Amino acid sequence: MYGQIVRDGLVNVTGIEDLGLTSPVLQRTSDAFFKEISPFLLHFGMFVPTIIGQCTPEQQAKWLPLAMDLKIIGTYAQTELGHGTFIRGLETTATYDASTEQFILKTPKLSSYKWWAGGLGKTANHCIVLAQLYTKGVCHGPHPFIVQIRDTETHMPLPGIKVGEIGPKLGFNTADNGFLGFEDFRIPRENLMMKNAQVTKDGTYVKVARHGKLTYGTMVFVRVMLVSDMAYCLAKAVTIAVRYSAVRRQSQPKPDQPEPQVLDYLTQQHKLFICISTAHAMKLTSTWLWNTFTGVLADMRDGNTDTLPELHALSSCLKAISTSDTSALIEQCRFACGGHGYMYSSNLPALYSFATATRTYEGDYTVLLLQTARFLVKSWEQMDEGKPLTPTLAYLEQSRNGSQVSWDDSPEGIVRGFDAVAAGRIGACVKSIRKHINNGMDYEDAWQMTTVQLVGAAEAHCRAVICRVYRDETARLTAGCSPGVKAVLDQLSTLYLLYWALERTGDLLRFSSLSERDIENLQARYEALLLKIRPNAVGLVDAFDFRDEVLMSTLGSYDGRVYERLMEEALKTPLNREPVSDSFHKYIKPMMQGKL
Ligand SMILES: CCCCC/C=C\C/C=C\C/C=C\C/C=C\C/C=C\CCCCC(=O)SCCNC(=O)CCNC(=O)[C@H](O)C(C)(C)COP(=O)(O)OP(=O)(O)OC[C@H]1O[C@@H](n2cnc3c(N)ncnc32)[C@H](O)[C@@H]1OP(=O)(O)O
Ligand SMILES: Cc1cc2nc3c(=O)[nH]c(=O)nc-3n(C[C@H](O)[C@H](O)[C@H](O)COP(=O)(O)OP(=O)(O)OC[C@H]3O[C@@H](n4cnc5c(N)ncnc54)[C@H](O)[C@@H]3O)c2cc1C
């Protein structure tokens, strides 16, 4: 029964094509059972996908049934105490010994300890370990290995394994993130995951993959999945905050009138409606990204890796922006719920601590935006050489002459405005890099001096992609809908455009003909749109269709019994079991009597 819940809850979200799943599924019924982050998250989130992505068919035939049936429990141990971002800097070594046909895993120093892997501390008995592969005295860089770390009967760590839990964190405290060290620990040669690179019995290294970065495939998969997961988390948070805001009444703006629902305040609508709209934007973008991802997988099956760099650039920036926007907007939902939003029972703190971690793991925000920027600058240079642009960068062509785009305040015009901002910012980065080089800097230093602008350019590119996809997909998907549904979903996507246009007036003034008058118009349209959305706000969050058991919130349940639920939860706290707690007799009373 338990295994079934773990499988149904987690497998259904992994969306791995090879498992017969065709899209990243948004809802997660397992939340209702586990309540907190599951220690099995990495098993289905990364261990299984890595077996699928990095193993030969023979290796898959051995490991996949064991993993899918939970006969073994795995995790993904890449990050070390000393290195997370810089994968080439990992220090754990796997040295091939041809005499025994084994790899010897070694943790050379403290900074080489594996650190962070979810479920590693107490739950997993196997893990995927990224280690520098040495054979015949040559280092071939980081490679993935399957390693058994605990006895499957006793669960004791195997001899040569040092494993433990890393301690309390801001969140994820039920995920038993762990550390792991190896003392000349031997594994069979066949435990090298050999889809992309192999070591023959005599120790010859054979590169199979056509692209050097296919070892990083699991990370690309998880980054793609995270965009969808952020839509899910944000939809939960805003469901809680909007329902609560419809129940909560506060202040008296007009004398002799009842206290209004806080949802009637324009500032509250400003805080919350962008969250509804962003959840839709991310859901549609994540499905679009998933389709791009599966297209690239199909290309690679045909031996073509040309589309991989664009996928890496897209998945990097969308992972960075979706996780960053979601953490900020969940925090905004908490602010929107006042003091009660700070209660653990509102579920907003748990949602926030989950979302804010995603901004760091699976590639830090800045680092990933700089990866995208690398692709953008390369593309600009290729355009200068007259080479064709990839589909998501087609907009650069219109901006190559550097002239300002004329401002057009229709939704499509605003999308073109975001294109112009992205193109302008990328162009400015190229100019800056070239200027530094002309002044005598080498390329790396010139790049370094431009990184603040490069992060901004990658963000602008990502925002332009989201705006275009959100607008196009909304139009496509609502084509057959009733006029009412079409109108409301159009309002939501327009809100996203207006919100970000107002957030980015500086850029739009710089790269388009936007005027002060245009900004006033944008502001007025934005405010009017908030009022139009208000009557549908509760219906829109109900439409996310979360069961109370999944939402797990005193503030956000469907029946709106907010105060009753808060009191019920308060009465459950252990401190309320006795009218007087022991600490009074032990410490407080003696202190009051001057005896302490
Ligand atoms: C109640 C229970 C329910 C619980 C919930 C249940 C389920 C969850 C459901 C949904 C969630 C959805 C999915 C998630 C599932 C599970 C995951 C959950 C938790 C995960 C926990 C976190 C796990 C981790 O964090 S694992 C560790 C991740 N680590 C990183 O990401 C490291 C980041 N670093 C890098 O990626 C790279 O090293 C780099 C910084 C990008 C690049 O390094 P660098 O040295 O500078 O460059 P390099 O020489 O390596 O590259 C040069 C060249 O290669 C190109 N490149 C780089 N990376 C890639 C790539 N991945 N693909 C393609 N190409 C790549 C790069 O652009 C350069 O190209 P060029 O030279 O410019 O042409
Ligand atoms: C909750 C959680 C769960 C995790 N689970 C796992 C797991 O299961 N398995 C696993 O292997 N790992 C896991 N990790 C580790 C995670 O992947 C790394 O923490 C993450 O990739 C960031 O790397 P880092 O910690 O080395 O940060 P660092 O790279 O040290 O970053 C520190 C700062 O330096 C900046 N920085 C670093 N490099 C550059 C650069 N080149 N240019 C500009 N700025 C730079 C960053 O932007 C950041 O501000 C987990 C982490 C967390 C928080």
From TrEMBL:
Chief site of localization: other
Top-level taxonomic group: Eukaryota
Domain Acyl-coenzyme A oxidase N-terminal span(s) in chain numbering: 30-73
Gene3D superfamilies linked to this entry: Acyl-CoA dehydrogenase/oxidase, N-terminal domain, Butyryl-CoA Dehydrogenase, subunit A, domain 2, Butyryl-CoA Dehydrogenase, subunit A, domain 3
Signal peptide (from-to): none
UniProt-listed SUPFAM superfamilies: Acyl-CoA dehydrogenase C-terminal domain-like, Acyl-CoA dehydrogenase NM domain-like
Pathway(s) where this gene product acts: Lipid metabolism; peroxisomal fatty acid beta-oxidation
InterPro entries: ACOX_C_alpha1 (IPR055060), Acyl-CoA_ox_N (IPR029320), Acyl-CoA_Oxase/DH_mid-dom_sf (IPR046373), Acyl-CoA_oxidase (IPR012258), Acyl-CoA_oxidase_C (IPR002655), AcylCo_DH-like_C (IPR036250), AcylCoA_DH/ox_N_sf (IPR037069), AcylCoA_DH/oxidase_NM_dom_sf (IPR009100)
Pfam family, one: ACOX
Record localization: Peroxisome
TM ranges: none
Key words, A-Z: FAD, Fatty acid metabolism, Flavoprotein, Lipid metabolism, Oxidoreductase, Peroxisome
Cofactor: FAD
Domain Acyl-CoA oxidase C-terminal, first and last residues per copy: 411-593
Domain Acyl-CoA oxidase C-alpha1 intervals: 216-377
Family: Belongs to the acyl-CoA oxidase family.
Protein name as it appears in the record: Acyl-coenzyme A oxidase
Source species of the chain: Loxostege sticticalis (Beet webworm moth)
Classification of source organism: Eukaryota, Metazoa, Ecdysozoa, Arthropoda, Hexapoda
